[in-house]
Design a protein that fits this description.
8 helices; alpha/beta; 37% helix
Length: 275
């Protein structure tokens, strides 16, 4: 299913939904780092919430970092989600809770996960389990969002059957679902219960439109609830203001696509995480 964000009524709806979310502007956002482990790897999560003791259990969002690692960008997104009333947490896939600007280093860190999708999923699930264990989190209302590599991470979690109400991928390099023979006798799409929102740059050369359309055809055949928006002219990493500095062809920031995709995500989360 394709949907445009350009109609003004949609923007009004998303704004009203943002204003109706719990605890908006009522309490200061507080943050902390939380140590955890996965298969011997020492990891560090970044947790953000609005510290409203009267809010009760509330929805939560797992933030999956980009190829560069869990640096300031992912943490800012977590704080922005906390300002909307969500409990938000940045997971750690790399054992190095920082951002690198070196493509070779980033490739070396991300590569093992693409080569071992079980590792991809179980490392991400360790982060999700940590979020689910946090006080004040309503385990029935949890979503995952991700940027680039993080979009892939969030979708891999959904493929694994993780208890997610929704997943949002921003300019992700998405992997095809595995058939039953490759996944313990259960096909990925038989495990998938989350609703999906895919926000993608129409001019992204790293994950071309034709490849995404093929994946969407697979989703449609399986009856997956997926909404996709493609932003004309936007390339890879269009939500990251630092993307123009990395010097990679086909990677760059697009302020319009960034703004519109965030509004659409707010609308989507409001839908899938409502009581």
């Amino acid at each position: 299913m394709f949907r445009s964000t350009r109609h003004p009524l949609f923007l009004i709806k998303a704004l009203l939904l943002t204003l109706s979310l719990p605890a908006v502007g009522r309490a200061a956002v507080v943050t902390e780092t939380v140590a955890y482990t996965h298969e011997g790897a020492a990891l560090t999560a970044y947790l953000a919430s609005d510290n409203d003791a009267d809010a009760g259990d509330r929805p939560a969002v797992l933030v999956c970092h980009a190829w560069w690692g869990a640096g300031d960008y992912a943490r800012r997104r977590a704080r922005e989600l906390a300002e909307l009333g969500y409990v938000a947490m940045v997971l750690d896939m790399y054992e190095d809770f920082d951002r690198t600007d070196d493509p070779a280093v980033a490739q070396g860190k991300a590569g093992p996960f693409y080569q071992d999708r079980n590792l991809f999923r179980t490392r991400a699930r360790a982060g999700l389990d940590l979020l689910l264990d946090q006080p004040g989190v309503d385990a029935e209302r949890v979503a995952a969002i991700g940027y680039c590599f993080g979009g892939t991470t969030a979708l891999e979690l959904a493929y694994s059957g993780a208890p997610l109400a929704g997943v949002v991928s921003f300019h992700g390099s998405l992997l095809d679902p595995r058939p039953a023979a490759a996944a313990e006798g259960v096909a990925d799409l038989d495990r998938l219960t989350a609703k999906l929102l895919i926000c993608h740059g129409q001019a992204d050369p790293l994950y071309p439109t034709a490849k995404l359309v093929g994946l969407l055809d697979t989703f449609q055949t399986a009856g997956v609830d997926v909404t996709t928006t493609m932003y004309a002219g936007a390339v890879h990493a269009f939500t990251d203001p630092g993307a123009d500095d990395v010097g990679i062809d086909g990677v760059g920031y697009d302020s319009t696509a960034d703004r519109r995709s965030w509004v659409q995500m707010v609308d989507f989360l409001g839908e899938v995480l409502s009581k």
